[in-house]
């Protein structure tokens, strides 16, 4: 009985140590993902564009970034560029994750856009809309509804990959776990709880994604 | 009266395939022109050239005094004069009927919400769909979709309406309601260019007819002549087939 109480006590103490680091994880994830969505939309429009000086840079961006491990990109941006441009840890971490995920999301957005029948754009143009307006009002709203499931995947992956920035000393959930472990040498309980916290966040995100998907479901669009 | 559509010596190729060869014709304000011909004869391509959805290789197209020059700015200006109705309707599937009608007046003509709503309401009534304003395109019948598409184009108050096989994707019992709306428009003096296989309807509403085959105009003239008493054997053969 006293052993069980002791165990519970340890768990609560670890949890109290870890929980204050959760907002940092959430913040890094949200900032990175917002950047990734912007870069992904720009990247997708570049990939679709027939203009060479737009299309080629977009292709290079996507293929280069996709081909290098995120951890290496974090090192490069923080230790390499960071020293040069005087980036702080948070900015470097967010930039690295955002740029990396932007490349993946570019391809998702492109798939979403290209799934929309060409006639939708032609109808928009024939009504006097500009290319930009046809993207803004017709293509993107339809495409984003189609790509909510793969975007939710990326968001969850992004949350988990935010743990990588612990390596440059950003104090988020994983970093807090490392700190606790190095002070108390309790490995099983610490990493069990770190994992559990990640899991509970990702499971609630999964739920949120399906709510979002239902909210924006258009009668007649997509397979139901 | 000066022509509102002036097409001179227009040619266009898709790769090796000549889509349009040396096409010339003109349309006067208030006139209804039908373009008939077999599939792949270039009718739809020609129509799409008239609102700058397809670029032309040579020749010239002048819409309401404004020559189409291939620039985005010019295309935008031309399209404000020219409404287009597509075979597959192309309603914006994520917007309801009212939103479909209001979008262009809002973002292109920069009208306020209530102004746009007023115009949309007027044209919905014209096509008899005022009770469907909150429906999504997927919840409409084919005929209702096409009437919505016509109303959507009318909201920009075009001088010319182009119809690309507007009833070809419809069940036979739905074509009547769409043709009725088009008949009404023609009666009100709208300039219309219609690509269609509805020969009966063409005879009834159009002033002039063009018969196309393999990217060329084979025969052109008053509808009663072209569709009633075709001089060219190719036209006569086509008419025999579609009327059978």
Q: What strand order characterises the main sheet of chain B?
A: 6-7-8-3-9-10
The parts of chain B where pLDDT drops under 50 for at least 5 residues are: none
Oligomeric grouping of the chains: heterodimer
Total DSSP helices of chain A? 10
Order of helices and strands of chain A: HHHHHHHHHH
Helix content of chain B: 25-40%
What is the makeup of the main sheet of chain B? 6 strands, mixed
Shape of chain A: flat
In terms of DSSP E residues, the strand content of chain B is 25-35%
| Individual helix count of chain B | 9
For the sheet with most strands of chain A, the description reads: none
- Percent range for helical residues of chain A? over 70%
Principal-axis shape of chain B? globular
Tally of extended strands of chain B? 10
Span of the ends, CA to CA of chain B:
39 Å
**Most extensive interface between two protein chains, with residue counts:** A-B, 23 and 30 residues
Which percent range describes the beta-strand content of chain A? under 5%
Describe this structure in words.
The complex is a heterodimer of chains A (224) and B (244). Helix content of chain A is 81%, strand content 0%. With 224 residues, chain A is mainly alpha-helical. Chain B is built from nine helices and ten strands. The longest helix of chain B is centred in the last third of the chain and has 16 residues, at 172-187. With 244 residues, chain B is an alpha/beta fold. A six-stranded mixed beta sheet of chain B has the order 6-7-8-3-9-10, with helices on both faces. A four-stranded antiparallel beta sheet of chain B has the order 2-1-4-5, with helices on one face. In chain B, strand 1 and strand 2 form a beta hairpin. Chain B has helices at residues 43-50, 72-81, 97-107, 113-126, 142-154, 172-187, 199-205, 223-228, 233-243; strands at 5-14, 17-27, 32-36, 58-63, 66-67, 82-85, 160-164, 191-195, 208-213, 216-222. The model of chain B has no long low-confidence stretch (mean pLDDT 93). Chains A and B meet through helix 6 and helix 7 of A and helix 2, strand 6, helix 3 and helix 5 of B.
């Amino acid at each position: 009985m006293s052993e069980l109480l002791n165990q519970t006590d340890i768990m609560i103490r670890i949890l109290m140590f870890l929980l204050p680091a959760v907002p940092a994880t959430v913040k890094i994830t949200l900032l990175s993902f917002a950047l990734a969505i912007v870069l992904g939309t720009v990247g997708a429009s570049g990939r679709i564009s027939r203009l060479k000086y737009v299309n080629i840079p977009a292709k290079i961006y996507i293929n280069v970034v996709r081909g290098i491990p995120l951890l290496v990109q974090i090192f490069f941006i923080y230790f390499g560029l960071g020293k040069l441009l005087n980036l702080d840890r948070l900015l470097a971490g967010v930039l690295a994750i955002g740029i990396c995920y932007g490349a993946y999301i570019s391809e998702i957005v492109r798939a979403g856009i290209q799934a929309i029948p060409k006639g939708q754009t032609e109808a928009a143009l024939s009504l006097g809309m500009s290319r930009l307006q046809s993207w803004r009002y017709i293509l993107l709203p339809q495409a984003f509804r189609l790509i909510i499931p793969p975007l939710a995947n990326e968001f969850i992956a992004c949350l988990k990959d935010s743990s990588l920035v612990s390596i440059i000393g950003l104090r988020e959930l994983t970093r807090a776990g490392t700190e606790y472990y190095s002070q108390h040498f309790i490995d099983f309980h610490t990493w069990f709880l770190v994992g559990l916290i990640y899991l509970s966040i990702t499971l609630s995100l999964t739920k949120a994604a399906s709510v979002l998907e239902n909210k924006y479901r258009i009668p007649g669009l997509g397979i139901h | 009266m000066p022509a509102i559509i002036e097409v001179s010596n227009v040619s266009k190729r898709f790769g090796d395939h000549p889509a349009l060869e040396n096409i010339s014709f003109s349309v006067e304000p208030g006139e209804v022109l039908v373009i008939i011909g077999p599939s792949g004869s270039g009718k739809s391509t020609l129509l799409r050239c008239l609102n700058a959805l397809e670029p032309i290789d040579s020749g010239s197209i002048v819409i309401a005094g404004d020559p189409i020059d291939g620039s985005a700015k010019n295309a935008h200006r031309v399209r404000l004069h020219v409404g287009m109705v597509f075979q597959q309707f192309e309603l914006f599937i994520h917007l309801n009927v009212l939103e479909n009608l209001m979008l262009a007046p809002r973002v292109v003509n920069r009208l306020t919400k209530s102004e746009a709503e007023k115009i949309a309401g007027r044209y919905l009534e014209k096509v008899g769909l005022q009770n469907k304003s909150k429906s999504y395109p997927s919840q409409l019948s084919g005929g209702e979709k096409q009437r919505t598409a016509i109303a959507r184009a009318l909201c920009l108050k075009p001088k010319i309406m182009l119809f690309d096989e507007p009833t070809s994707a419809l069940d036979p019992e739905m074509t009547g309601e769409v043709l009725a709306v088009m008949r009404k428009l023609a009666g009100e003096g709208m300039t219309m260019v219609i690509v269609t296989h509805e020969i009966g309807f063409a005879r009834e509403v159009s002033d002039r007819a063009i018969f196309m085959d393999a990217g060329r105009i084979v025969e052109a003239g008053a509808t009663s002549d072209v569709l009633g008493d075709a001089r060219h054997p190719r036209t006569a053969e086509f008419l025999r087939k579609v009327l059978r």
